[in-house]
């Protein structure tokens, strides 16, 4: 980059579009159902089996044919002999007309039966079930395939897989899923001032919280980044560290993205032959953020060193690349009306709380180095000044 004009600083939305354009999907792979947690489906998913697999009892009670109660009245009740019992997991024997069987919840309903009477409603006299009214078929019977029929599409391509989805697919007999491949990620914290562990010998040092925080953010999305040891403020060492990490699909540095005397990121990237797509975004905090492509094809994100700015960079910009690589659409925030101090031509990120009633409350302390407000916050408000007034978009915190 040395001697070359710095790319124009894009707006927040334009920067996300630039990232998505250069974040190609990585293909697909087949994984076991449990291993699909926090992955994105790479194709439609169909049920392998009917669910329920058979007509099943929804209650403990008595199974019989509703037609056997057609003539029942209080004066002339139907009295059905109790001829056996059906347990869950056991295939029932043939059902004789005008009889009933005890049945357990989840057990197969015998062929010819279409009604299950809960045991607490039953009147049993001399081993006979006494019924004093006509009953309509279907009560407390879970019909075969009523939730999903074998071969039916139950999940669309591009779906984020949650524990609930895994539970449903297990019921449908699905054992494997085709999912989008996940990128490998290397995190490189930079700065002579960073401490990996507390130390009394370096009272002017600070803890490396950024790479810890970003690692946690990525783990919450099912990714396992490689977190390297802090790299010192030396252009040659930084260049070597980035080169060594460039076999990853994504390389992320924290710190050193500004223009100070000890910010060597631009020099290191220039020596490596990287293509810088933008260095700086019209946003606060996080203005110095850098996005480039390394000669290996790896995407490179240079995040600022202030913790909130680093978190925003990982949450929105690295996040945009991850969504595109997984085949997910661009994230869209919920538009809300807000009142806050505007910055012309600058997107402002505000820590906020969505109250139980839906009201959005902007927190008082918006400084880029303070973490306490993040503990209280549960969302971001992304604010832009427009000719029509202030516009805010609400996004989840992570």
TrEMBL record:
<dbReference type="InterPro" id="IPR038987">
    <property type="entry name" value="MoeA-like"/>
</dbReference>
<dbReference type="GO" id="GO:0061599">
    <property type="term" value="F:molybdopterin molybdotransferase activity"/>
</dbReference>
<keyword id="KW-0500">Molybdenum</keyword>
<dbReference type="InterPro" id="IPR036688">
    <property type="entry name" value="MoeA_C_domain_IV_sf"/>
</dbReference>
<feature type="domain" description="MoaB/Mog">
    <location>
        <begin position="186"/>
        <end position="324"/>
    </location>
</feature>
<keyword id="KW-0501">Molybdenum cofactor biosynthesis</keyword>
<keyword id="KW-0460">Magnesium</keyword>
<keyword id="KW-0479">Metal-binding</keyword>
<dbReference type="InterPro" id="IPR008284">
    <property type="entry name" value="MoCF_biosynth_CS"/>
</dbReference>
<dbReference type="InterPro" id="IPR005110">
    <property type="entry name" value="MoeA_linker/N"/>
</dbReference>
<dbReference type="GO" id="GO:0005829">
    <property type="term" value="C:cytosol"/>
</dbReference>
<protein>
    <recommendedName>
        <fullName>Molybdopterin molybdenumtransferase</fullName>
        <ecNumber>2.10.1.1</ecNumber>
    </recommendedName>
</protein>
<keyword id="KW-0808">Transferase</keyword>
<dbReference type="GO" id="GO:0046872">
    <property type="term" value="F:metal ion binding"/>
</dbReference>
<dbReference type="Pfam" id="PF03453">
    <property type="entry name" value="MoeA_N"/>
</dbReference>
<comment type="function">
    <text>Catalyzes the insertion of molybdate into adenylated molybdopterin with the concomitant release of AMP.</text>
</comment>
<dbReference type="Pfam" id="PF00994">
    <property type="entry name" value="MoCF_biosynth"/>
</dbReference>
<comment type="pathway">
    <text>Cofactor biosynthesis; molybdopterin biosynthesis.</text>
</comment>
<dbReference type="InterPro" id="IPR001453">
    <property type="entry name" value="MoaB/Mog_dom"/>
</dbReference>
<dbReference type="InterPro" id="IPR036425">
    <property type="entry name" value="MoaB/Mog-like_dom_sf"/>
</dbReference>
<comment type="similarity">
    <text>Belongs to the MoeA family.</text>
</comment>
<dbReference type="InterPro" id="IPR036135">
    <property type="entry name" value="MoeA_linker/N_sf"/>
</dbReference>
<dbReference type="GO" id="GO:0006777">
    <property type="term" value="P:Mo-molybdopterin cofactor biosynthetic process"/>
</dbReference>
């Amino acid at each position: 980059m040395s001697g070359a004009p710095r790319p124009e600083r894009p707006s927040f939305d334009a920067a996300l579009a630039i990232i998505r354009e250069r974040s190609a999907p990585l293909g697909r792979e087949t994984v076991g159902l449990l291993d699909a947690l926090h992955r994105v489906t790479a194709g439609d998913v169909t049920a392998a089996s009917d669910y329920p697999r058979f007509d099943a009892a929804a209650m403990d009670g008595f199974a019989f044919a509703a037609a056997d109660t057609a003539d029942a009245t209080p004066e002339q009740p139907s009295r059905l002999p109790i001829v056996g019992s059906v347990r869950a997991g056991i295939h029932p024997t043939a059902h004789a007309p005008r009889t009933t069987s005890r049945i357990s919840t989840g057990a197969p309903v015998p062929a010819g039966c279409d009604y299950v009477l809960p045991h607490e409603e039953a009147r049993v006299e001399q081993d006979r079930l006494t019924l004093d009214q006509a009953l309509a078929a279907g009560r407390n019977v879970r019909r075969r395939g009523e939730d999903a029929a074998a071969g039916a599409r139950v999940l669309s391509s591009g779906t984020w897989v949650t524990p609930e989805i895994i539970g449903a697919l297990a019921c449908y007999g699905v054992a494997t899923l085709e999912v989008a491949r996940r990128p490998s990620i290397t995190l490189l914290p930079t700065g002579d001032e960073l401490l990996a562990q507390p130390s009394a010998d370096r009272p002017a040092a600070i803890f490396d919280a950024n790479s810890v925080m970003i690692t946690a953010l990525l783990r919450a999305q099912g990714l396992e980044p490689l977190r390297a040891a802090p790299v010192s403020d030396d252009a040659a060492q930084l260049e070597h560290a980035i080169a060594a990490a460039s076999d990853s699909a994504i390389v992320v540095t924290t710190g050193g993205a500004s223009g100070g005397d000890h910010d060597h990121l631009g020099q290191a990237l220039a020596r490596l032959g990287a293509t810088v797509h933008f260095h700086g975004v019209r946003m606060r905090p996080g203005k110095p953020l850098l996005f480039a492509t390394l000669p290996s094809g790896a995407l490179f994100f240079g995040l600022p060193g202030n913790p909130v700015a680093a978190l925003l960079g990982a949450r929105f910009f690295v996040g945009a690349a991850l969504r595109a690589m997984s085949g997910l659409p661009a994230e869209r925030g919920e538009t809300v009306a807000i009142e806050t101090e505007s910055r012309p031509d600058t997107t402002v990120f505000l820590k906020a709380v969505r109250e139980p009633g839906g009201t959005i409350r902007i927190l008082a302390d918006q400084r880029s180095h303070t973490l306490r407000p993040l503990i209280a916050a549960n969302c971001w408000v992304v604010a832009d000044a427009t000719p029509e007034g202030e516009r805010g978009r609400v996004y989840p915190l992570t």
